[in-house]
Specification:
The chain is mainly beta. The protein folds into two domains: 6-64; 81-470, Methylamine Dehydrogenase, Chain H (7 Propeller). It has three helices and 33 strands. Helix 1 (20-29) runs antiparallel to helix 2 (34-64). The radius of gyration is 25 Å and the shape is globular.
Length: 471
């Protein structure tokens, strides 16, 4: 549906507003109100008009004065309020525009029988969505206040654990397994189901509000999010891709050759460019690939560039700088890379000293905190343009998960303190100073993506099925 541009309210024939008093006077003279009555009506009409123009002007001011550094308020953005995508937003930032708490305590915890592979998403209505591999339901809607189950569904199978639910601004929930992409209402009603080949590792929205995703075998789909109908014919990056349909969970966790598209694409809502890791069959290592989605004259995707600089593949989804000029990605060796988003040329690489097990968190100011791994001291690097520098590193904090940053310069990380013992720590990202620490009860494994709710609640999921809420 075409959106109304509020500025069209002011479009009128030249001189219309100059002639408005005469138009009103002529109309009044045709009625028997008398001179005094006409004077009162004329004054009232002008007051009404001024009030309406004032209201419209305020609306325009509020629209135009949004935060230009945030995709969250972009007019082309159909993402829901809150943490609505697996890595927070279209650019995979793992960053929240909300103000996070500097001190927390455990609000509730929940244990699922299966694994949790990714962080939960959440909306502004107090709903938290999580996927698991447990028998029965594989998508759950939880009450953000209590952790109680609102509803769950077995309409998706165990392969849904490879994705986080994607939420749009009309309350729809999108999640796929290895047979179909599905849309649900926020009450759990199945809205549509579209067959697919392979399974995606979460989906995104395009600049035109379509649903876009790439299955693990390299098949690109673009769907109408209201109906589930295909907007264009699926694009296969690999000839005869059906031969790769067998699921290898380890390969997809590491982004290696047997799972060619093992991560979530990052999408630039301004240009239509999108970026994803891809290991083409027969090649020595994974590449970072860029394409562009457009609908003029017809919906299509076009290849832009490929950069083969990811030693050993990649366990991370790429993410974009706030202005869309750079794309960041790590490899399965020891480095994070920054590439020119337009050309694919290498800008800088930074050795973090270990193999990261997930995606980095990137702030609008270019402060990057890598995911954890073996012998992974918690650290932050700063993008300085043509190079990167170490801002701080604390090897006493062994990072075991995907870190999240917030607008008030805080970071939330899971650190190992013993065998099956982990703490949530809150860090000042500017200095690395530890501000608070809370223990994760039970016997959790490493965390798989800390996310932040619309109300500032911190959600910590672990691979072996724990979900904790701190506030």
């Amino acid at each position: 549906m075409k959106k109304l541009d509020i500025t069209t309210i002011f479009i009128a024939p030249k001189g219309y507003f100059d002639e408005l008093p005469k138009r009103i006077t002529r109309r009044l003279k045709t009625r028997s109100y008398g001179n005094e009555g006409r004077k009162i009506i004329k004054e009232t009409t002008w007051k009404w008009l001024v009030q309406k123009l004032l209201v419209i002007s305020i609306a325009l001011f509020n629209i135009n004065c949004h935060d230009s550094n945030s995709f969250q308020n972009d007019s082309t953005n159909v993402y829901g309020l809150g943490w609505s995508a697996v890595h927070a937003d279209a650019r995979n930032s793992d960053y929240s525009n909300e103000t996070g708490p500097g001190k927390v305590s455990l609000a509730w915890q929940k244990k699922f029988d299966g694994t949790i592979n990714l962080g939960p998403t959440s909306d502004a209505k107090g709903h938290v969505y999580i996927t698991t591999s447990a028998d029965g339901c594989h998508l759950y809607s939880l009450d953000a206040n209590t952790g109680e189950i609102i509803w769950c569904t077995d309409e998706v199978n165990q392969y849904a654990v490879a994705s986080s639910a994607l939420l749009d601004n009309e309350g729809r929930i999108f999640i796929a397994d290895d047979s179909a992409m599905n849309a649900f209402s926020d009450t759990g009603t199945l809205l549509w189901k579209t067959p697919i080949i392979g399974f995606p590792l979460s989906a995104q929205f395009t600049q035109t509000g379509r649903l876009i995703f790439i299955t693990h075998i390299g098949r690109i789909y673009v769907l109408d999010r209201e109906t589930g109908e295909t907007v264009m014919q699926p694009v296969s990056l690999i000839p005869n891709d059906s031969t790769l349909s067998d699921f290898d969970p380890i390969a997809c966790m590491r982004g290696s050759e047997k799972c060619p598209c093992a991560n979530t694409l990052a999408f630039d809502l301004h240009s239509g460019r999108f970026f994803f890791t891809f290991w083409a069959p027969g090649t020595a290592q994974a590449s970072l690939t860029a394409m562009v989605y457009a609908e003029d004259p017809v919906p299509s995707v076009t290849a832009l560039w490929t950069n083969q600089s990811l030693s050993g593949g990649s366990a991370s989804s790429p993410d974009l700088s706030i202005d869309g000029s750079k794309v960041y990605v790590n490899d399965n060796d020891v480095s994070i890379h920054a590439l020119d988003a337009g050309s694919g040329e290498n800008i800088w690489s930074f050795n973090i000293g270990y193999e990261p097990g997930g995606s980095q968190s990137t702030s609008p100011k270019g402060l990057i905190i890598p995911a954890g791994g073996k012998n992974a001291g918690l650290l932050a690097i700063r993008d300085k343009g043509t190079s990167a520098e170490l801002l701080w590193r604390n090897d006493s904090l062994q990072n075991r998960g995907i870190v999240t940053q917030t607008a008030n310069n805080l970071a939330y990380a899971t650190v190992k303190v013993g065998q099956l013992k982990y703490d949530l720590v809150i860090i000042d990202v500017r200095s690395g100073q530890e501000l608070d620490r809370e223990h994760l009860p039970g016997l959790p494994f490493f965390s798989v993506g800390i996310t932040i709710g619309y109300d500032g609640t911190i959600y910590v999921p672990t691979f072996n099925g724990y979900l904790y809420a701190y506030r």
